[in-house]
Each structure stands twice: as structure tokens, then as C-alpha cells.
Amino acid sequence: METTDGIVQEGTLSSAGHTDVTVAGQFAHSAAACPAFTEVLSRVGDKWSMQVVMQLGGGSMRFNQLRREIDGISQRMLTRTLRGLERDGLVSRKVTPSVPPRVDYTLTALGESLRGPVSRLGEWAFRNKQAVADARSTYDLREEND
Predict the structure, then answer these.
(1) CA 21, 22, 24, 26 torsion: positive or negative?
(2) Cβ contacts of residue 67 below 8 Å, gap of 6+?
(3) 27 DSSP β-pair partners
(4) What is the pLDDT of residues 57-100, one digit of tens each?
(5) Which strands sit side by side in the sheet containing 91-96, from one edge to the other?
(6) DSSP string covering 8-22, please?
(7) Integer Cα distance of 86 and 53 in angstroms
């Protein structure tokens, strides 16, 4: 363990590389200290991934079903999103040999564990959409007048 010179509390070592912080009994991770943390948040926090996760929460779906249910997503973006979610272990892809081949997408256990937080975030956004719109308007007016 790398230590730094400086005054530390008796019985502790100061580490230049340790930036993790515990807040109110929960682990609060420094995103700057861990690129993997930031990478995961960008996957699960993007607009399309959240919508795919919520759609698949109802059960297995085929590609075109997903595309019809997710308003505004292009074929290319849905393909990229599904590949990313599969790579991250959130979605599984099952190919059934037929003509044409049948491909079904399902949430994995890890993907299922994401549904709750995504749902709560969506509920928060819905409850607060007007407050956010009002704050944006206030900000924009202030910026125009400066």
C-alpha cells in the first residue's frame, strides 16, 4: 500500500490512491478514481438502455417488437444498445434456428436487478418534469438578460 507523508490519525495510514468515501453507511465511490464505475453508469444511464431494460421487464421480446415499443429508436441504435447491454451482462440473446432465424432478448438476473432503480428514476423524472422545465426557463431568461 502506498502511503503519503503527512499527519494522519493514530492507527491509520494515508493512501494517495484511496479516494473511496462512505456516506451515511453507504459506499460513495469517486467516479474519477474508477473509470469502470463511470463506464457502467454511462451504459445504464443512457436514454435507450433504460427504455430497453424497462420493456424487457415484461418478458422476452424480439427485435422488431422492441423497435415498435420504443418510440423514436432507429434500427441501428437498437442494435447498438442491445449489443452493449448484452456485453455488460444485462441482456441475454437467444437465437432459435428457423427461417428466418428467431432472436429473442431477455433480461438476465443482473438486468432484472436494474429494473427497480431505473423505474424509480423514471418515476422521479415524471413527478419532477414540470419543476425541471420551470428551472430551465428561469435559467434561460437569466442568461438572455445577462
Answers:
(1) positive
(2) 73, 75, 78
(3) 22
(4) 999 999 999 999 999 999 999 999 999 999 999 999 999 999 98
(5) 61-62, 102-107, 91-96
(6) --TT----TT---EE
(7) 11
